Amino acid sequence: MFRKILIANRGEIACRVMRTAHRMGLRTVAVYSDADREARHVRLADEARRIGPAAARESYLNAEAILAAARDTGAEAIHPGYGFLSENEDFAHACAKAGIVFIGPSPEAIAAMGDKSAAKSLMEKARVPLVPGYHGEKQDAAFLAKEAGRIGYPVLIKASAGGGGKGMRIVRAAGEFKAALEGAQREAKSAFGDERVLLERYLERPRHIEVQVFGDTQGNLVYLFERDCSVQRRHQKVLEEAPAPGMTQKRRNEMGEAALAAARAVNYVGAGTVEFIAESGTDHAGALSGPFYFMEMNTRLQVEHPVTEMITGLDLVEWQLRVAAGEPLPLAQDDLAIRGHAIEARVYAEDPARDFLPQTGRLAHLRFPADAADLRTDTGVEAGASITPYYDPMIAKLIAWGQDRRAALARLASALDEVEIAGLRTNVEFLARTVRSRAFAAAELDTGLIERSRAELFPARAPLADEFLAAAAYAELLAEEGAARERAAASEDPHSPWNRVDGWRLNQDSHHDLAFAEGDARHAATLHFRAAGMRLGIAGRDYALEGERLADGRLLVRLDGRATKARAVRDGRDWHLFIDGAHRRLTLHEELEGLDIDAGGGSLAAPMPGKVIAVMVKRGDKVQKGAPLLILEAMKMEHTIFAPGDGEVKEIHYAAGEQVPEGAELLRLE
């Protein structure tokens, strides 16, 4: 076994690999960019080396710098994690040339499966079922359009060189094909350095089911059952679970054997995942009955590997390390068994209400439920860290286990209610709604579940409950009391009534006026200090108010005797309130009349830092509401800026190829 390994990655997966390595007694080396100098994975490692500036291409994709760090620290092996160089055959070759073990498959296997078109041809020879489509080398736009017509609409355009939803477009009619192809090629070129695409028939309600495989250098291969990853947004996974609901043992065996056939075709060694799409049909007993087709093979550890670990009791990273060190697989196929059910939720810094637009900013507050036998949190960040535009905006993964799916669902829903994140928008409440949604609870799964359930998953924002205002008012009172005590201690007259915060006024009613804003909404609250106790006035309603701080830091607030537990987190002028899984942010203002509410206007601001890829209008153009104006690339994904209403383009401030900061005015409509 190795004595020291280097993890050529960052964030959650780097921390995950280190956890197992340290348990096995291995020393670890972290690498970091300038943006990650203070990152959690750097502090967890035994050693760390800088590999370049913040941009991934100059750091985490810098093979020479990573290999130099390995040589400098004496690391015997490199674990690539997922993403970055994990599926780069040139990097695997370079590791071998340098005498350093690449903890993954051979360069030849990576190359064979990395080219999606070539992989399809290989799978056809191995008799693995394929979706009808085109995966050849000819990439002429007119030819591809003709092939799309032959396959029949709707068709799916996919990047040949990668996955993760990048370079992927659904095309439902011939008239949409040209623009969709151009967008997919641009995104593929940016993400993978290769603009080639393949075409497939698009299945309207498919399930995304993948099989975990493992091989060793002795020629042994096993599959560790399946995962259902059907719940997706922007072609990227949101919830994953194992085993797949409705899976029969017969179908499991068929898919497992097909996955092993795919792995054997490339002499696979290490952890890999064979992804299939399956028709979502079920028989009268609810069992999965439709055909399944090979989609791709990921020659690395998957983001969602923890659900497999939870139902098998195995550590897949440990298996990776042992196989890479030349040991045989720890178990044979007949030794493997499924125990219970596990579901994973990916927590992202993104705004579901704005088409899951990635968010950047500082994590002012971060709190997860405690790990237990039935719950695990994998994260690479801590409170105070920043989510930057340079990398994937994942914050954490919550993985819940239960004796059956119903128990796992209940545990995950409860855990999501305990998550507290302040400082930027996240998908936590969206995840909780999805887990509790009728379709997901009933296991009516397919990749269109989110779109099909929009009314349930994207409800209108609920009015602000008085409990939130009460918690904010009480939290502000406690904060002012603390500040007043400090002022009093430093003053010449520490007992002066002017240092009190109970609203004391000379010859006047003792009260304290507070004004809060939530977006454009304004909220006033008045605290009255009476001999019989505090009263709280909100919009003409009058409550008896009591409160106390609990041992865990939360507030216990009583309105007319009704008790509510709330966490209140101060971030500048903002109060972040967490009550029963709901999060609201209230901004404190000295006077309600002072609130400056933005009325909008004709400018269109960049929702995040990025690069302008294309400008579809010119000055003087008249556009209608919903017309595409500009394409912005951020975090390797394209985001189209649409016209918010009818108007005329008066000014364009950025051209294609230019970088724009968050909030910059892109253009102006009149």
Features of this protein?
eight-stranded antiparallel β-barrel; 39 strands; 17 helices; 670 residues
| Spatial gap, N to C terminus | 67 Å
Q: Give the biggest sheet.
A: 8 strands, antiparallel
Which sequence of strands runs across the widest sheet?
14-13-10-11-12-15-22-20
Uncertain segments: 504-508, 591-601
* Count of alpha/pi helices: 17
User: What value does the Rg take, in angstroms?
Assistant: 28 Å
Mean pLDDT: 91
> In total, how many beta strands?
39
Give the helix proportion (percent range).
25-40%
Beta content comes to: 25-35%
Class inferred from helices and paired strands: alpha+beta
Structure description:
The protein is of the alpha+beta class and 670 residues long. The chain contains 17 helices and 39 strands. Strands 14-13-10-11-12-15-22-20 form an eight-stranded antiparallel beta sheet. An eight-stranded antiparallel beta barrel has the order 24-25-26-27-28-29-30-31. Helix 12 (405-418) runs antiparallel to helix 13. Residues 504-508 and 591-601 have low confidence and may be disordered.
Structural topology:
Elements lengths: L3 E4 L3 H13 L3 E7 L6 H5 L2 E6 L10 H11 L3 E3 L9 H9 L3 E2 L4 H8 L1 H10 L7 E2 L6 H11 L3 E5 L9 E3 L5 H16 L4 E5 L4 E10 L5 E13 L2 E7 L6 H16 L5 E10 L12 E7 L6 H8 L3 H9 L16 E8 L1 E2 L5 E2 L2 E2 L2 E3 L7 E5 L6 E2 L6 E9 L2 H14 L1 E3 L5 H9 L1 H4 L7 H4 L1 H4 L8 H25 L20 E8 L2 E10 L2 E6 L2 E9 L5 E5 L2 E10 L2 E6 L2 E8 L13 E3 L4 E6 L6 E2 L4 E7 L2 E6 L4 E6 L6 E2 L4 E5 L1
Parallel strand pairs: 1-2, 1-4, 2-3, 4-5
Antiparallel strand pairs: 6-9, 7-8, 7-9, 10-11, 10-13, 11-12, 12-15, 13-14, 15-22, 16-17, 18-21, 19-23, 20-22, 24-25, 24-31, 25-26, 26-27, 27-28, 28-29, 29-30, 30-31, 32-39, 33-35, 33-38, 34-37, 35-36, 37-39
